[in-house]
Specification:
The chain is of the alpha/beta class. It is built from eight helices and 16 strands. Helix 3 packs across helix 4, helix 5 crosses helix 6 and helix 6 runs parallel beside helix 8. Bound molecules: adenosine-5'-diphosphate (ADP).
């Protein structure tokens, strides 16, 4: 079995919760991959350099200056901090962006008309933001099979020398799919589990009630939860990525607390 764990921004940016996450991840049996975010750190470093962070529908507008910031923060500060913490626990972590090993190739998102949060329509240019085209699942699987633990930053490349800022949930889901596809060529066909860990105990029926975890979400129940406004914001792309992974060969997808990376509680997603 191979486990791909995505850890949300709020968890990696708090030393106490990051410590707990690293300890649990180090103890996880089997082959594994860690994918991290880091948006809040990027916002803080950008501000210290006099750059304002602009978001549209929860996604960062990434102009030239902001691309430098996210490259430094995601690919450097956050990624190498996590790698060093894992090495201290005896885990042979290898930090990667999508450019390293040609791990994840993407294309720059075209300028397009979108409905904004206030309901108006407008042309939006996200700048240096990438939509994923291809994952080098073979290279990633080779790393895990030889005992290494890839730690993936939310950056991809376009094959023409540009880095692109890419949503970490998408990186996690695409990585899991790429490894599952590469695993089909193996005699053992390893099962791939994708776990989204964040600061809440799962997908909640009532946003302020941590006791209201929805244990199971199907495609049908998801449509209803979305229409009723029970899932919103960052949870929508997370669930879209979850269903995409299941359709493309990932065996198990869970959304759970960062203190439950084995997925004993939380929300299980099924098609
Ligand atoms: P991450 O922490 O992984 O980067 P996001 O911030 O993108 O994740 O998405 C998680 C957020 O989704 C939660 O912090 C919460 O504010 C929001 N959310 C919206 N609907 C729900 C729901 N029904 N249950 C839990 N969280 C929800």
């Amino acid at each position: 079995m191979i486990t791909v764990i995505k850890v949300g921004g709020a968890v990696v940016e708090n030393e106490a919760s990051l410590d707990r996450l690293i300890a649990q991840f180090a103890g996880l049996e089997g082959e594994k991959v860690l994918v991290h975010g880091g948006g809040r750190s990027a916002t803080r470093v950008a501000a210290s350099m006099g750059l304002e962070s602009r978001m549209v529908c929860g996604r960062r507008i990434t102009d030239d200056g902001m691309l430098d910031v996210v490259t430094m923060v995601y690919g450097g500060l956050v990624n190498k901090h996590i790698v060093a913490m894992l090495q201290a626990k005896g885990v042979n972590a290898l930090g990667l962006t999508g450019a390293d090993l040609n791990a994840i190739r993407s294309h720059r998102r075209p300028v397009k008309e979108m409905t904004l949060e206030d309901g108006t329509r407008s042309m939006v240019d996200f700048g240096w933001v990438g939509d994923v085209d291809e994952v080098n699942g073979e290279a990633l699987l080779h790393l895990t099979e030889t005992g290494m633990v890839p730690v993936m930053a939310p950056l991809t490349h376009d094959g023409m020398g540009h880095l692109l800022n890419t949503n970490a949930d998408t990186i996690a889901s695409q990585t899991a799919c790429g490894i599952a596809a590469a695993g089909m060529t193996r005699d053992t066909r390893p099962e791939v589990t994708l776990t989204f860990c964040f600061e809440k105990p799962g997908v909640l029926a009532r946003p302020d009630d941590d006791g209201s975890v929805i244990p199971l979400i199907t495609q049908d129940s998801y449509e209803k939860l979305k229409a009723d406004g029970i899932v919103s914001g960052g949870m929508i792309p997370k669930l879209d990525n979850a269903f995409d992974a299941l359709r493309r060969g990932v065996s198990r997808v869970i959304i759970t607390s960062a203190d439950d990376i084995e997925g004993k509680g939380g929300t299980t997603i099924v098609l």
